[in-house]
Design a protein that fits this description.
Layout (H helix, E strand, L loop, with lengths): L8 H13 L17 H5 L6 H33 L3 H29 L1 H20 L4 H29 L5 H29 L7 H5 L1 H15 L13 H24 L3 H26 L16 H12 L2 H14 L4 H7 L1 H21 L2 H21 L7 H15 L3 H6 L7 H31 L5 H26 L5 H15 L1
Helix pairs in contact: 1-6, 1-7, 1-19, 3-4, 3-6, 3-7, 3-9, 3-13, 4-5, 4-6, 4-10, 4-19, 5-6, 5-9, 7-14, 7-15, 10-11, 10-19, 12-19, 12-20, 13-19, 13-20, 15-17, 16-17, 16-20, 19-20
């Protein structure tokens, strides 16, 4: 959750739901996105306590998003308090994202196997405990370990939210329930910007950055108690088996890739770090080979590689990757504002509001823009981000007489145009029975991109900063890092032009159905 979960409105929320359901059932709803609804969901008697249960589920969903935003604002304070190196600061973000990416699909399958209520309350309890450990961390390494635990428990909790909503509510109420789900994330984003800065600046009970983690405790306790009292348990009729080997190999691949990218600059690239980086492609090749063999034996691979042969899917995943490397912006902007301009955490949080408000406004209109423009709406969104962040970089470098906030607002409008519909656009041409798994792959890609974006662009930022600590040096480093983001967003925009349009998706789906008959 991470930026992954910055969703709004029913289009993306509905797609996001299928990613977390991860169930194989014998009856399907023949729609491009809603692929895994059990038939009994459409015919069951609605739970009279379903709206109370929804409030509980949304409280749990609120936690990871709030946590992501407040952590970014607190990174400079954490660095000073724990004497953390730039690499350790990067790991506080990237370790969480990498863990989330690897275990997300497995978390959904655990709910299918052992019950969604059980996994939700387990995940909430674990996330709350991990938040306590984060708040009490005596060192940067202890904090990183606690953040990994947070990421792991979030993957147990988050998938159950959408899967449970689909079981609790009759189809006629899905749109309203998913709209409230999307609104929860918009609220969490804005609250995170303001609350995170306020907690670090105001130092309640003498706490500084620790408060941003400990604030999760009362919220988690409410969600835990509410889950036990009001949630109805459910599980999939035909749940997929766990792919332990795939999880292990993907974890190894990301570790071999992310760790050297973060630590290499500070340690002078010793031979063992170079060896890790060189070994990463080999580990990935082993992962691909393992997944293919598992699928050939009739197993349930973590990633169904056959999906990459579907029209536009491989291009779409690459586009999603380019989009979510933007996660590094939250790190570099926070460090620039607080380290270079010496803003308080509260003022830094308020400085990001134009971006958050732009995102929120655009997300409200995203569905209509998507209906009118199709996949070209994504191209428009990428273009707005390129222009907005480009202006922001030039403004910080004093190369143009444009206010930084104007660029951020434009970028927010662009992100809000893309984000709510990106999964729906990518999986629109996928056969309905595979749409849920395809969505899960895209969402995991978001988190992998987040981890690598922080590792690579964060390294560029700190390399450009060097030993200088004046405002000009911070401004230069931020401008260069943001230019990297702009380049990646331009690539994403170019890739969006290669996505099949609605007519192509309809034709492909019709051909698939004809072939099936």
């Amino acid at each position: 959750m991470t930026p992954l979960e910055k969703t709004s409105q029913d289009g993306f929320a509905d797609a996001h739901a299928t990613a977390h359901a991860n169930t194989h059932v014998d009856t399907h709803v023949d729609t491009p996105v809603a692929a895994h609804i059990d038939m009994h969901v459409a015919t069951h008697v609605a739970d009279p306590r379903r709206w109370i249960a929804l409030a509980v589920l949304l409280t749990g969903a609120f936690l990871p998003i709030l946590d992501f935003n407040v952590v970014n604002l607190a990174l400079p304070a954490i660095g000073r308090s724990l004497d953390a190196t730039p690499g350790e600061i990067e790991f506080i973000i990237s370790a969480y994202a990498a863990t989330y990416a690897v275990f997300l699909i497995t978390g959904g399958r655990l709910g299918d196997l052992f019950g969604r209520k059980r996994m939700f309350v387990t995940g909430v309890a674990g996330f709350t405990l991990a938040s306590v450990l984060c708040g009490l961390a005596p060192s940067a390494r202890a904090l990183i370990a606690a953040r990994i635990l947070q990421g792991l428990t979030a993957t147990i909790m988050a998938p159950q939210v959408l899967a449970s909503i689909r079981v609790l509510f009759p189809p006629a109420e899905h749109t309203r329930a998913f709209a409230l789900y999307g609104a929860t994330f918009g609220l969490a984003n804005i609250c995170g910007q303001v609350l995170g800065g306020a907690l670090v600046s105001l130092r309640p009970w003498g706490l500084s950055w620790q408060a941003i983690f400990l604030v999760n405790v009362p919220i988690g306790l409410v969600a835990f108690a509410g889950g036990l009292a009001f949630l109805r348990d459910s599980r999939a009729d035909h749940a997929q088996r766990l792919d332990v080997g795939g999880v292990a190999l993907l974890s190894c691949t990301l570790g071999l890739l992310v760790y050297p990218l973060v630590e290499g600059r500070e340690t002078g690239w010793p031979a063992w770090l170079v060896a890790m980086l060189v070994a990463a492609p080999g580990a990935f090749a082993l992962f691909v080979r393992f997944e293919r063999r598992l699928a050939a034996r009739g197993g349930s691979p973590l990633v169904d590689l056959a999906l990459f042969g579907e029209p536009g899917f491989a291009v779409g995943v690459a586009m999603a990757f380019a989009l979510y490397t933007l996660s590094s912006f939250y790190l570099t902007f926070s460090v620039y504002l607080q380290g270079g301009l010496h803003l308080t955490p509260l003022d830094a949080g308020l400085a990001t509001l134009p971006y958050a408000v732009g995102y929120f406004i655009a997300s409200l209109a995203s569905a209509k823009v998507m209906d009118r423009l199709g996949t070209r709406a994504l191209t428009l969104g990428f273009a707005l981000q390129v222009v907005g962040f480009g202006l922001a970089a030039l403004a910080v470098s004093h190369l143009v007489a444009v206010h930084l906030q104007i660029g951020l607002a434009l970028a927010g409008l662009g992100f809000g145009t893309v984000m709510p519909s990106v999964i729906k656009a990518i999986v629109g041409g996928i056969a309905p029975k595979h749409a849920g798994l395809a969505s899960g792959i895209v969402i995991s890609t978001f988190q992998i991109a987040s981890a690598l974006g922080v590792a690579v662009v964060g390294t560029v930022f700190y390399s450009e900063l060097g030993e200088s600590r004046d405002a000009a040096a911070f401004g230069h480093a931020f401008s260069v890092a943001l230019a990297c983001n702009v380049g990646l967003l331009a690539v994403g925009g170019a890739l969006s032009l290669c996505l099949p349009g609605p007519r192509a998706n309809i034709t492909d789906a019709a051909r698939a159905r004809a072939g099936h008959r």
